[in-house]
């Protein structure tokens, strides 16, 4: 049995917290003081990491790191909620950062702000967005940023075999990093053939299953399958469905999609289904 490894967001950021904070804030003077608990009453997520930071200019403040496998339409509201909860709990200014790991579907537009107006009142929350596929892989080695080593294959220019091997060598030469090899293999499988990845490095599923992103991909696979099946049933019953309906199904979880499947079978028209979708 392979030894379980913590390869979640907190473990990765804790490898070099100062370098990480300087990268996400783009301020070289920022230092990490402490990684804090990000459990807010009923909310606890493995992909959120809250770090107490310090700079001579701004004093103590919080950096809220949300590492998201793929961007969803719920992210702006989530960033607003988590930022407010963090600031309320620790009574410090909060700098929220959303790090998207993989590109979203073509139907989604990534935004860097939550905005809502209701009855003349406005709610606004800005946050920084970092899309890993837009980040040059070379900066991981130059700065260096060991927290990003497992993500090298999906960074810009990181999908080349020589670059992946370079990241692998960096992991294997550091005792603190070598347990991340399975996570590197996991992301390498998105850009290289699986047999090649297995030949290059350890493909340890027992360790990989410790990663929150592995579980998220499993869940996303089930969710996407349910969404496609629902669309297929709607098309078989009512013909081609609109782009708007497909987009509105994007953010539904598996339970919601299953309930909508029951509705898709029972309704007599697409308009009737859309009314149910709007409730």
Overview of the molecule:
- The protein has 279 residues and is of the alpha/beta class.
- 44% of the residues lie in helices and 18% in strands.
- It contains twelve helices and seven strands.
- The chain has helices at 9-13, 17-25, 75-90, 138-142, 161-172, 181-188, 194-200, 205-208, 212-238, 243-249, 254-266, 270-278, and strands at 31-36, 48-55, 59-70, 94-102, 113-118, 121-126, 128-131.
- It has a five-stranded mixed sheet with strand order 1-2-3-4-7, with helices on both faces. A two-stranded antiparallel sheet has the order 5-6.
- The model is unreliable at 1-5 (pLDDT under 50).
Summarize the entry for a quick read.
With 279 residues, the protein is α/β, with parallel strands linked by helices.
Total number of strands: 7
Q: What's the tally of helices?
A: 12
- Structural class, please? alpha/beta
Mean pLDDT: 86
Oligomeric nature of the chains:
single chain
User: Which term fits the overall shape?
Assistant: globular
Protein topology:
Elements: H1 9-13, H2 17-25, E1 31-36, E2 48-55, E3 59-70, H3 75-90, E4 94-102, E5 113-118, E6 121-126, E7 128-131, H4 138-142, H5 161-172, H6 181-188, H7 194-200, H8 205-208, H9 212-238, H10 243-249, H11 254-266, H12 270-278
Parallel strand pairs: 3-4, 4-7
Antiparallel strand pairs: 1-2, 2-3, 5-6
